[in-house]
## 1
Amino acid sequence: MNELFVAARALVGGEERRELAFLVENGRFAKIGDAKSMTIEAARDGTKTRRFPEDRLLVPGFINGHSHAYQVLLRGWADDWSFDKWRSDALYRVVPQLSPEDVYWVFVFAFSEMLAAGITSVVEFFYLNGAGNAHAEAAIRAARDTGIRLLFARTWMDASYAPAAYRESIEVARSRSEELLQSYPEINFCVAPHSLHAASPAMIEAAAAFAAEHDCMLHVHVAEAAYEGAATLSEHGATPIRLLDRLGALNERCVAVHAIYIDAEEQALIAERGARVIHNPMTNQYLGDGICDISGLRALGVPIGLGTDADVKPSAIDEMRAASLLQKIARTDGAAFGARAAFDLATAGGARALRLDAGRFEEGAFADFVVLDARAIDPWAPAVNALVYRGEDAWVQGTFVGGTRVAGREPSAAAVAARERLRAIADRLVP
């Protein structure tokens, strides 16, 4: 059904627009224009019209470029640990024990949190594939039932140190990935060799070939920590980005997650190859990883998005603020990375990095948008600055995916049920 949305205030490319209308057809923006003329036309055609007044601000749906939703089970009790301890005693201890039913409820909970924070699309980087596709199918079902737009980054891992719940051979990973592609065409499937330490060179080469064959994106953790560069240099005679390039995986399909420990030549190589980067500033701080030089990468034209990664608090607003402030600190320059640049990472820029037709008010794009409470925005302040530097998730009043309202201020019945189920799962698994 067609519907016209009329916004007294909207952010378009970071600029505030007044009295803007959006006609939604088949889940996409079919026409965008002046509210007065489009409202008259809608009345003539009998098109349903919904208006948002002055105290509401419409913004494009936020794009979450990297998430591990099951890690919501780790927050709180596994805080303030070193990365090695966090990985071995929390991540590798709890997550492999999840059943497909557990995965479903954990993901309903995490996806509901994201939607309540205005996140309309999420890349879920999913590990639990060692026993087959049942766990992945549960995650996909959770996305469908909550209404979030899912990009499913199915991990390939073959490192001997990884839990059996994560490990597969190349042939098995390829076969199971093809099964998911055929069974769930709606999920925007991505292949995801875990990293240069958890996927063998042969597996990464095979994943790159798979991405080319199926024209899908390839997501990979890379240069997240200093030790990784030392290890790949010692074992393969190349730093992580250069090794990815040697393996044929650094190209226009590659989404490099983290990309913190890279030099200027590697930044230029990422740009030359047409690769993309997902920055995870809150998790990078939480785990003490470091700061990605998104200012340098952006100056080279590299598409960059934001991710909530460990999902300590899945908030695109927090990620935008952290992205901006960390660059100001890293460069000791208050003008290093402004509010509009940060807003772009969470919306249109993030969508470009993922090859996703969303994140912007533009005809033909997915009609994914967020309704914010604008009453806390000072009348003299640019709305984008207020959102990035002072915004809160509580400002989100409604989240729309494909023109359909999927979340509001009150939690859905599914979200309430998921919280109760999560309590029982945590009682069973959390030490």
## 2
Amino acid sequence: MQYVQSKIRDFSLTQEELENFHQKGYLGPFTLYEPEEMKFLWEQERINLLDRSKAVYQDEDAVSGATNISNYDRHLDVDFFAEHICRPEIVNRVSSILGPDVLCWRSEFFPKYPGDEGTDWHQADTFANASGSPQIVWPKGSEDFGGTITVWTAFTEATIDNGCLQFIPSTHRTMFYDEEKGMHYDPEMLNSIDKGGTKRGFFGYDYRQLKVDPDWSPDEAKSVSMVLRPGQFIIFWSTLMHASHPHRGKTKEMRLGFVSRYVPTSVKIYPDTEVVTEYGGSIGLEKYGAVLVSGENKFTHNRIVEHTTRGKPFNKVVDFLF
């Protein structure tokens, strides 16, 4: 159960970078692809995404509507994304934070079109906020830990005008939201909620329903905007307070981010869950599996898939474990 990583350049974080990450909750941007390279790659790969014949989620509800859930885990059937989540530029840095044994448990796309609202301020610890059930659970004894490491890669320009990410630094160690409360999904809320003069929503949910203190509001005066060039990525804890600007429509081009999420192998993924229902869709997990991207897996509590790209083994990983 050993992942064999190529002996290329080591992109591990320096001690200074690691301390900076733990203090702020995020780090970057880092360049993975040059802008013209990213533009070429996306023009090519967006065509491959249209073929869902090998996608792990074929549920009609998941793929029929414009719900984000239909965008999950295309790294499990499209070669480019399979390679992307394992790039040493990403994995070396993530394993510097999480330790040597690391799984990629989800990937997803975040498009923002002209006129789209900003994503509301939020945090994610167990990812139970929308589905109602914890999707990741850290082992006992890790009460001070939680969430996932998110790697957000810009596939297009990400600017303030077209909806780049926003962070409130150093908010990742306190949860201001209670995910166990759950939220009510209402597609009518899309592009309709005004918060402090800015349209902000959460894909058909209102994140205010999860506030621990109903009278509390994020201090946006402390926020920073993550402007990224195509091909750059940012690393952050999912428990960090984060949001995005609205797409102001000054350009007709969408803003697109591709997210890969990582946890140590000790974390339980989708425990006691067979179907995930959120964002107005459902997906069955029969073909789902996490991908070992670094180190080895000494546990049997997660489904692990053998990862192949371009017809050749890419990860040395065991078969499904149930």
## 3
Amino acid sequence: MMDLLAPPIDKTAVEAQLDALVRRHRQAGNLGIQVLNVIGSKAEVLLERLPEDMRARLGEGTHQALVLAMGAASHSRTMVGGQPGWLNRAVTTAMGAAGGFGGLPSAMAELPITTTILLRAIQDVAVEHGFDPNEDGVRFDCVQVFAAAGPLDHDDGSDLAFLSTRVAVTGKAMQALIAKVAPRLSTVLGQKLAAQTVPVLGAAAGAATNYAYTSYYQQMAHVHFGLRRLAIDADRDLADLLEDFRARIVSPKP
């Protein structure tokens, strides 16, 4: 249990932890490059592989999957406690291979389950940093991690939308967040679906994308909750700390 009376950590420790979080952020971006190398395609053209009717259904389907995932991920914690990160990655990797092997229909059917496991993986990271995933504000933060750009579109200047100061969390605020996150997540998951339809490489691409997606959101969750924990431990204003982090991302040290 953390000592609530412990003095704030010093500036040197804060700088070191910020640098470590920047490295995590950078590692997250490398995952997408590995996937694109496997499938031999570019992120911006992946969605063109999907049939138009499926692209049209992705937004609503992702919104529903996210709502269901919130309940399912939280409920799973009452039956199975925190799981190591590697286990979540192994499960989603196996599911991605199975989904890709069966083509687009099986990949689409696998999507809500993968969303649930991704959210559960984010919750497990929150626990690692000392936060309670059953607390409304933390649940809000977990969903907010999905506002990151996604591993196939990872960009230092555009994937920091998930980093923000916490707002007052109400039922309406959570609904608004889901409505805001769902379109971005539908694009991200649409790229995953498209990768799984690559001829011959379907199963391999499915495994690679699910591994990359799980690892990516785990890394982004470490960044998100690591910054929140650092703000507490350093007795720093979170907004100021976020600005320091963003500055390191946009203008990295030589």
